[in-house]
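Protocol step 4 of 5: obtain the predicted structure for the target chain.
Materials: sequence only (see below). No template structures provided, no constraints applied. The aim of this step is simply to have a reference model before the mutagenesis design in step 5. Sequence pasted as it appears in the construct record:
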Amino acid sequence: MLFDTDVLIFVQCGNVRAATLVESAEQRYISTQTYMELLQSAKNKTQHRIIQQFLKEFAFTVLPFTENIGHRASVYVEEYALSHAVRAADAIIAATAVEHHLPLSTANSKHFRSIKELDLKVFKP
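Step 4 output (structure tokens):
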């Protein structure tokens, strides 16, 4: 399963449901976009190390940004930015899930529900 940034932030804030969801996943993936968003939210190097350690301990695989992901994300922005407010970061995360044939777990269903080929797993905190 590919996890959206918000689910991992819930885990870091102590949300038991989010932690259970992550722990129950057989395989854990995040997009490069999510990795960057997590690091960007850190206030110092210590928090960077905590984030990196968390990802390592739970065996997350960071999926790289590829040409196909970039192209698909661009299409999503062209198709859905005006009608459904799909932003570039969310388009990249969705494209990563679709390109790797992975379900996407997120609490922000409104950011992704317009993307028909996405296997969306809505997390309710």
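Step 4 remarks: Strands lie at 2-3, 28-31, 60-63, 104-106, 120-122. The chain has one domain: 2-122.
Proceed to step 5.
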